[in-house]
Amino acid sequence: MTTTASSRTSVEIASQPDTWLRVKESSARHADVLPRRGERVAVVGCGTSWFMALAYAELRERGGHGETDAFAASEFPHGRRYDRVLAISRSGTTTEVLDLLARVKGTTPTGAITADPKTPVMRVADAVAVLDFADEESVVQTRFATTVLALLRAHLETEGALPDGVRPLDRAIADVRRAVSLDLDTDVCAAEQFTFLGTGWTYGLALEAGLKMREAAGAWTEAYPAMEYRHGPISITGPGRVTWVFGPTPAGLADDVARVGGTLVAGSGDESGALDPLADLVLAQRLAVRLAEAQGFDPDRPRNLTRSVILEGPGA
User: Fold this and answer.
1) 120-154 in b/e burial notation, b at 16+ Cβ within 10 A?
2) What domains are defined for the chain?
3) In the structure, what pLDDT confidence band is assigned to residue 130 with cuts at 50, 70 and 90?
């Protein structure tokens, strides 16, 4: 089905400056859900939520707030002790997340961040932050995921635990206002392959960018830690192929991309300067929609996907 720029996903992407600002102003209300300083915390999710968990875990630990691990909910190490488990689930119905929260209930304090207050996660988690204003009609997650990470960044900022080099959320909000209106590069839009790279917390963003491109547009995408790029992934780069770096570009990497004829996207922005990496992710979301529409795909309802994965039967 042919879609237009007014697809629901496009509208939800464009609303992110407002949802980030709203979550910044309301972050104090969710203090009972979020990790306390010094706690050993596991953050879990599935798909996009797992990638946001990876980004947050790196931010929290590097900021000195406490040891933090991130897991796909299905891979949680139940023999390991944590002071708190924090689950991210837009739908509040994902089987693996609910099973995990039920299994640790009564032995480990749990919190959850969701978009829907009428779902089972409200009963299974000890405390829940509901970001219903960031919920989406689209199957593909965009604004809920980034708004969750904005909330977690805002909490670290109020706790004095935002790592060096990570911008305050006010600046990230200013950047995302630019990101929703910047022109997309025509060469990037015409590329046949995309490799997304990140370092530290931005590696989770690179993984998420790759997932968005696959989900919405069926694009050929890869994602790696930035320093791993030269250990094999560079072999895929060439003319008509993009290497997109979230955050700092390792020394010499730009030259390596140019040498093999690839197109480098790094520090996306305009004359006002490079974007915050989370705002840069919004550009990748917009690119995914652009590519989907160019192929006649519906970015709101990608093939083979549903809003939530609910499993049935033994072992589900």
Assistant:
1) bbeebbbebbbbeebbbebbbbbbbbbbbbbbbbb
2) 8-166 (3.40.50.10490), 176-294 (3.40.50.10490)
3) very high
